[in-house]
Design a protein that fits this description.
The protein has one domain: Orthogonal Bundle (Helix Hairpins). It is mainly alpha-helical and 111 residues long. The chain is built from 4 helices and no strands.
């Protein structure tokens, strides 16, 4: 994953010079990509009719998640957040997430 982060960093430097990319533009793009992800998920859960095969929908979900991650990496890079900082924060978030009530096993009811 770190190599992807480094690659995004290189691409961003070129893009900022050419297109004036900034955080606001990236947040707009992220919103668009999250919407596309939601459309694909809606197909899987049956909220949106489709004749597409599940494998094609899953491939699209994978692509949209990758788009979102790339945009988020880009925002982090623009804010001078290192890959190491991100992985430390993810580790902290994982600890918090593991401790959420919604993912802890429910105690068995006594009879």
């Amino acid at each position: 994953m770190q190599s992807h982060f480094t690659e995004v960093s290189k691409i961003l430097k070129k893009d900022r010079k050419k297109n004036g990319t900034n955080e606001a533009k990236l947040l707009c793009k992220l919103t668009e990509e999250v919407g596309e992800l939601a459309q694909s998920v809606n197909k899987i859960i049956g909220m949106k009719g489709t004749s597409e095969p599940v494998s094609e929908i899953d491939n699209n979900i994978s692509e949209e998640i990758a788009d979102c991650i790339q945009i988020l990496f880009t925002i982090g890079i623009m804010r001078n957040i290192s890959y190491e900082d991100l992985t430390k924060m993810l580790a902290q978030k994982n600890i918090k997430y593991k401790n959420l009530d919604r993912i802890k096993p429910k105690p068995k009811k006594k009879k």
